[in-house]
Amino acid sequence: MKKRIFAILTAGVLGVGALTACGSNANNAQPQDSTEGTASSTKEDAAPADKTEGETKTIRIAAQAYPLYSPINLAKELGYFDEEFAAVGGEYTWTEFESGPLVNEAVAAGEGDVGFMADLPAIIAKSSGQDIQVVSGVATGEKSLAVLVGADSDIADIKDLKGKKIAYASGSYAQHLLALVLDQAGLTFDDVESVNLGAADSPAALANGDVDAIVIWEQFITKLTEEGTAKVLIDGTGIKKSNMVLYSVRDFAEANPELIEAFIKATDRGAKYI
Asked: What pTM was estimated for this model as a whole?
């Protein structure tokens, strides 16, 4: 347990410019992991939280393993979710995805009640017609998102990106950073060749020379730069704050405010522990 907590905390500080608790702010990859947590037992399949009074309610969490979500992941690891949900007669399921857009797909398909992600995927979900609402902030981190080029690349300036192949996950906040970076150089997406790749596949594409640059987040930034296979061309400092948020399906939040509050309380405890 100590080793797992240390790993979570270590991931949480790598490349993160700022970390704020949420408590004060009332590709084709498949889900990576699915677990359930209760105070006393677990079940293979949990029903949506619309049961009759007196029965256990379940909140289905669409999650991501990512450094800026360390308060949430630590809250799960230390049992804070078990405690806070049990206190209001609830339990939870936990399913991990590789990116915010994949969380959106799961929630849109009725497979999740809450999801946490970066700002742009949440905005896209709302603008696409999903009946969701942001219920809390989670964290911010300007250095947690960056444009990387190969360690030996001759690309030394943002303007050098013109005409280059750039990989990023379409619909992710990486795409937004790239838009802002290009704008600073007087460029647009029409001036580059976009390649839609998830974070897990982008490093190999860069290493193999299939693309000239990638826009990616932590923990990949630290891993690639420490290995010496890539270097940071520019990160989000002074450009993009990178807000991480928790959103809920509106009907679920309105019917189960105590479960939303329990989630936020548990996450705040995780942030305070850090």
From this structure: 0.72
